[in-house]
Amino acid sequence: MPSTIPDEEPVGGDGIEAPAVLVDEVDDGEGASSAGAAPWDRYFDELRDVRLEERGGTFRVYLAGKGPAVLFCLHGGGYCGLTWALVAAALKSEFRIAAMDMRGHGETTTEDNCDLSAATLVQDAAAVWAALYGEERAPTVLVGHSMGGAVAVRLAAEPQGVPALEGLAVIDVVEGTARAALPHMAAVLAARPPAFPSLRAALDWAKCSGTCRSTEAAAVSLPGMLRRAEAVDRARWVWRTPLERTQPFWDGWYAGLSALFLGMRAPKLLLLAGTDRLDRELTIGQMQGRFQLALLPQAGHAVHEDESQRTAELLQNFTRRFRVGEPKGPIPLPARAAGPPVLPQAVGPAAGLLAVARRSGSLAVKALFTRNKQADSKRNTGYDKSAVEVDPAQPAFTRRREVFVGRLAMFGFASALIGEIATGRGALGQLELETGLPPWGVDLLVLGIVAYSAIGALNPKSPTFSEANQRDVRKRPAGPNNKPNKIDAVSNPKGFFGITRFGFSKANEVFVGRTAQLGFLASLIGEKVTGFGPLKQFGLETGIPLGQASIGLVIFISFFLVAAVFEGNYGEDAISDDSMY
Fold first, then answer.
1. Closest Cα partner for 148 from 177, 167, 124?
2. Rounded to whole angstroms, how far apart are CA atoms 503 and 519?
3. Which of 406, 408, 403, 396 is nearest to 571 (CA)?
4. Known Pfam families for this protein (predicted)?
5. Which of 183, 204, 325, 523 has the fewest CB atoms within 10 Å of its CB?
6. Quick one: the chain helix, strand, coil %, rounded to 5?
7. What residues act catalytically?
8. 274 vs 87, 187, 293, 312, 480, CA distance in Å?
């Protein structure tokens, strides 16, 4: 095609002119070509001008790829559809890519190029999608950056916006941080050079200023963001879209965005350059597993240009995880690998592990695997003072307290699963987002886990330490010194797991209690390292900044570590290792 596209006359007299340059050789007005500009057809397969009479304009769309699913890409303010060039090149072997120039940007011309309100942009995008894919209702993932991300969220929220919507990916736009930055935007725009003597100078500025950290991405997208100056000074390049004129629309782009994003039922992906961009509402939503979050800290605001390959990988994994464009039937189970069954091979190592565990000096292992001599009935009745207090000389939970923590942990897990069944959000949903494993596909198994955990935690008739041993004493000969032999998971699994009374045995409850202590300890350490966790969520929900109490947090971590590792109190009526059953 020709090396330049003639300037289009501005329509409607708004003074916004279409860009004159889109290809690899550009006459800079001085008789020489500006090397560095990349041709669009190196990345896209086709460009199409979609005329929409009802929208009063012609919209440029860059198309690439083949496949059942469509990635419909919306650029940010001041950018153009070519900003998606590198992402399109990476994904077009698997997806259809459509990247449109929005109103007032790139090669799109309309009767009112100055109307960049959120409602107008949403209607434009919906009309272009319908013109391209409405008849076939192609499964679509909306992908938007910055302003385009805000438009994508609002379009996805429209009941008839994209009827075949199967996902939403938003890049570096968050309501709270965007609206907080609006008072400073005028100064940011004023700091940009108003014009460039050549396209090469513009490319150099983009690289040096950090506006685009990828030279290749800038070479293909920046020409579409610029235009020749007026005829009196056509040796200069100026911005295609005068963003300072769009200031009346800024707040409307972002107001209410987080609530719309979180309230959407479609799978959601948020790509950010850093966690500092998350606002309070999205931070809570992320902790609740309501969307998938990906961070690319090496990128600037134009994440998809600076880290195009990584962005493409994240979009690819996101669409595969939620089976975009695939039939939504049951997920097929993987075929069993060739060779002998795994379970018989695992019996030997498992038995060896149990044998070693029985002889281990570890208290946690003994609590899980061993049953010692019959306890005095007094030690299994009541919660007297010595059974619930902590010995100051040995700062750890008593055995009764660990049983309580274990039961509480089981009940909490059952409650969490019930809550997830009711709300559709929770730990299993987050697991699916992070791993792609659909745990809710086995509903009966999940309900069984809920029932067992709840009844095991609440059942007051689960075997006591003495009962579990007494049931088996009549069947087993006494050991040395007329003491009952130990009972373990191998020799008596029915008694060990408390199946008779449909509840966990006390040894298991002690183990669950200790595991819960260590799990809470790990979550606190993880929160200290990452900045995300239960204390931060508690602070967001209540306004009490527990996570900021560093000294108290360290003490809390230390206590749970000591309580989980040390043996605990051996008061007269406390449950000791010698009275586990």
1. 124
2. 22
3. 396
4. Abhydrolase_6 (PF12697)
5. 183
6. 50, 10, 40
7. 146, 172, 301
8. 20, 23, 10, 18, 65
Give CATH 3.40.50.1820 domain extents, the chain: 42-321
Element (H, E) at 552: helix 550-565
Q: At 539, list the tokens.
A: 């602070």
Q: What is the pLDDT of residues 97-113, one digit of tens each?
A: 999 999 999 999 999 99
Pairing of strands 140-145, 70-74: parallel
Neighbours of 355 (CB within 10 A): 13
Q: What is the four-CA torsion angle of 211, 214, 216, 220, rounded to 10 degrees?
A: -30
What are the tens digits of pLDDT across the range 117-150? 999 999 999 999 999 999 999 999 999 999 999 9
Q: Can you name the CATH fold of 42-321?
A: Rossmann fold (3.40.50)
Would you state the torsion angle of the CA atoms of residues 422, 428, 433, 438, taken in this order, to the nearest 10 degrees? -100
Amino acid at 503: G
Whole-angstrom Cα distance, residue 524 to residue 530?
Answer: 10
Query: Dmax over Cα atoms in the chain, in whole Å?
Result: 110
Q: Which two tokens stand for residue 547?
A: 């996570």
To 10 degrees, the CA torsion angle through 451, 456, 458, 459?
A: 110
What is the residue whose two structure tokens read 């695992």? 346
> pLDDT tens, 291-327?
999 999 899 999 999 999 999 999 999 999 888 988 7
